[in-house]
Write a structure and sequence with these properties.
disordered N terminus, single chain, 363 residues, 14% strand, six-stranded mixed beta sheet, 50% helix, alpha/beta, globular, five-stranded mixed beta sheet
């Protein structure tokens, strides 16, 4: 090798070493983080804990996008804490994250309901519009600020089914006296019509329905409901999605832990969550369409929309429940006003776009 070539290579190696050192030192200074994330749903639950857009998928995406700098260990309901104790665990810093639905925390703050689903509310497109571009996520974090937490959407079921009933529902009077599993504001609406409302984790719904502890139950949609075996305990499967026209999964994060993350890792978490929000809803469309066919064609399920007068009664009671809620809680009113102001604009656009498609094009 010539003297000139040796000198060139030596200088190049030195330059690489000098220039690369600050970048390496910078990367090392950012450090790595090992977090724990709990869930309100059992280990292996499709959509929530397993598969595209689930809690485990979210953790995997964050690990890969961060090149291993943020590792999240995921725990199903009951593995580390009970199903509905994620809020307190994140608040206390016992875990850094929880994957569930905000309406489980309405006992902590009434405004939380609006960040999961609102009866007679917006669909998936409208909800995302409000959250991402209508100030919804900012309000979400304002609601959780006193608790030292931040949140963001990380999944969506789309329109849910009204639920399973052991007997046919013909009028609103048929609801009176029913024992039904139903969470959130929808539970309050049903209660005002005489329903004995129960809140049960997913794994307890089938045995309760089968043994007659409850007469009706709402969970998610055809795929999830079939997996629980609800079709074996009740045959009337009603729809309209009045109670949850799009149901948001919540990524709840301890703010002190969040603030310790470098900006690039915060961006990775936010973008991975947004990806799972869209990917999970897409998975639901495929899974539910196939499961619904099977339930009706092969398992004797009677699927139908709720009668119009029942929907009318539910809407009337929803208006009363929401009015009572916002009258008692100024922060809930602030969120409510934002949600429904956005909904009014979205509905006008949806009439021109989505509704026109469904009535004129789809056929």
């Amino acid at each position: 090798m010539s003297l000139v070539r040796r000198q060139f290579l030596s200088r190049a190696a030195l330059a690489t070493s000098v220039l690369g050192a600050p970048a390496l030192a910078s990367a090392q200074s950012k450090g790595s983080f090992n977090w724990k994330m709990t869930s309100a749903y059992g280990k292996g639950s499709p959509f929530y804990m397993d598969g595209p857009g689930s809690a485990t998928d979210l953790a995997k995406r964050i690990k890969e996008m961060s090149d291993g700098r943020l590792n999240i260990q995921v725990f199903g309901a009951g593995e580390l804490i009970p199903a509905f104790e994620g809020f307190d665990a994140v608040r206390a810093g016992t875990v850094e994250m929880n994957h569930a639905n905000a309406y489980f925390w309405t006992g902590k703050t009434a405004a939380a309901q609006y960040f999961t689903a609102v009866p007679f509310g917006m669909n998936f497109q409208g909800m995302n519009g409000w959250l991402y571009d209508g100030g919804g996520i900012d309000l979400w974090n304002e609601v959780y600020a006193p608790f030292g937490m931040v949140a963001m959407p990380c999944g969506n079921t789309g329109v849910q089914m009204t639920g399973w009933f052991k007997k046919e529902i013909k009028t609103a009077a048929d609801l009176k006296g029913l024992k039904m599993r139903i969470p959130g504001l929808a539970g309050k609406v049903y209660a005002s019509l005489g329903v004995d409302v129960k809140v049960l984790p997913g794994g307890e719904i089938f045995p309760a329905l089968e043994r007659g502890v409850i007469d009706a139950a709402e969970f998610v949609g055809p795929f999830q409901d079939r997996r629980l075996g609800l079709q074996k305990a009740a045959k009337y499967y009603y729809t309209t999605g009045w109670h949850e026209s799009s149901t948001v999964s919540e990524l709840l994060i301890n703010k002190a832990a969040w603030d310790k993350l470098p900006k690039d890792l915060q961006a990775i978490v936010s973008n991975a969550s947004a990806a799972c929000n869209v990917i999970s809803e897409a998975w639901c469309q495929k899974a539910n369409s196939e499961a619904m066919d099977d339930l009706v064609k092969n398992q004797g399920v009677i699927a139908r929309p709720l009668p119009d007068d029942v929907i009318k009664a539910l809407r009337t009671e929803t208006d009363k429940v929401l009015a009572e809620l916002v009258a008692k809680d100024p922060l809930a009113k602030k969120v409510h006003d934002s949600y429904f102001a956005f909904k009014a604009k979205y509905d006008r656009w949806s009439e021109t776009s989505e509704e026109a498609y469904h009535t004129k094009v789809r056929g």
